[in-house]
């Protein structure tokens, strides 16, 4: 799923490295889907930082873990190219939710 390079990248603090899900461009019947139908704002968590810190110095654990499928905001994050794949680095607070399987 994720390249070995992405697995070695450990985000700092409350950052989360996400590989966006690539939506299908064709239906099962072979019909080409328009761009508006193929827009999906979800991804798979590849790597998670140790968590944020409170003013007292206590660590706040992240709300997601590696392998979670998450709902992402339409805008935001930092684009990162590792090898041939694109990843996005988000803050833990920016992730909208976890999609249950």
TrEMBL record:
Entry keyword Chaperone: yes
Region annotation Disordered: where it falls in the sequence: 47-68
Residues making up the signal peptide according to the UniProt record: none
InterPro entries per the UniProt record, alphabetical: Chaperonin_GroES, Chaperonin_GroES_sf, Chaprnonin_Cpn10_CS, GroES-like_sf
Pfam families: Cpn10
Record keywords: Chaperone
Entry's family note: Belongs to the GroES chaperonin family.
Name assigned to this protein: Uncharacterized protein
UniProt source species: Sphagnum jensenii
């Amino acid at each position: 799923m994720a390249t070995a390079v992405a697995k070695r990248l450990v985000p700092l603090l409350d950052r989360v490295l996400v590989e966006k899900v690539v939506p299908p461009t064709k239906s099962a019947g072979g019909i080409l889907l328009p761009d508006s139908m193929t827009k999906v704002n979800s991804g798979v968590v590849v790597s998670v930082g140790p968590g944020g810190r409170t003013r007292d110095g206590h660590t706040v654990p992240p709300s997601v873990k590696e392998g979670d499928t998450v709902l992402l905001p339409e805008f935001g994050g930092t684009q990162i190219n590792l090898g041939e794949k694109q990843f996005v680095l988000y803050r833990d607070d920016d992730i909208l939710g976890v999609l249950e399987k």
